[in-house]
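Re: that chain you flagged

S.,

Sorry for the slow reply, it's been a week of failed gels. I finally had a moment to sit down with the sequence you sent. For the record, here it is as I used it:
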Amino acid sequence: MKFSIEREKLISILSEYTNILKDNPIKPIVSGLKISATKGNVIFVGTNLEIEHIRKINIDVDEEGEVVIKPFLLLEYIKLLDEEQVNFSSENGFVTVHQAEFSVLEGGTYPNIIELEPKNLLSISGSHFVKLLDKSKFAATQSQENIQINCVRAVFKKDELNLVSTDSYRLLFLRENIECLDTREISIPMETVNTLCKLLKDYDREITLGYNNDTLIVTWENSYFSSKTIGLQYPDFKTILRISAFEKKMEFNRDELRSALKRVITVAKTSLDAKFGAIFNFTGKTMIINAFSGRAKINQKVNMLKDGDDFKASLNCKFLAEYIDNVSNNIIIGGNNASSMFEIKEVDNDDYIYILMPLALRD
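Prediction finished late last night. Pasting the structure tokens below so you have them in one place:
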């Protein structure tokens, strides 16, 4: 194998696979990146057996061939080079780049990665899709032990896309008005969500999302990405969202509330009652947030407009702050009492709703 490639392009491609490849002691060959050079094309293939990614580039190939190599050390070395073009060749079990040699992986058969034909669901800007994922993924459970909700639920409808996440203590619902090509509900694993966010965060061109049976397929310019989806039944979030009768509604300036929460979190993160737990007193035109950790305590006052009687509740202030970090307008908090769920959303925006369960209120 022998070809020449732009250094920056090679760095970009190898960086993509550092987000996917991982050590596999049972089948070490899978931890490598397969590079195939054929006439006029170099194809990069990587998989962790759950996610598959194929990249193709059109360049002149001097000698055809194929190798499997771990890309991490190779990437570090290429970043240190000054040349605009990098000569890449392989011979006798080694890959030669510039003046360095890197050993290739042997002793196993690399999985046969096939590009599945997708049934298309949606076309959207890559960076915009990442923005939507970022706004919805934070409420999903991060534990892979609860695989059913270790995901973002994507609901494709005729004229809208819904993204939903939950960790059973909170629920995030996002609606994007956009034409979908088919109707489908898919649970996208968090590992896949995070990988797509890294791959596409700066990609402003169009991508296409589709599926083939239980596989999510994302394609864009010279790129193919697929991931297994979660087949377990997702919690019934639609019924929860239909519960919209809140006796008490409080409106806050977003920046004032955000600043107060950031200060409270410094104490609440080591709260004696519940990590990140704080007492929220909704009284008159002022909300007072109290947190106590044993070594420190804090009280923060926040102005508000309130409809309904005074009351207090215990909430996870980190959870509340994570939603507020993703909005820019005034915040409406709706609730009934200290033991019922709360609804948080922006003023005049029913397309981005956050349901938060209260903590046990201490006496």
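What I noticed first: The helical segments are 7-18, 71-79, 126-137, 190-200, 237-242, 254-268, 317-324.

Talk soon,
D.
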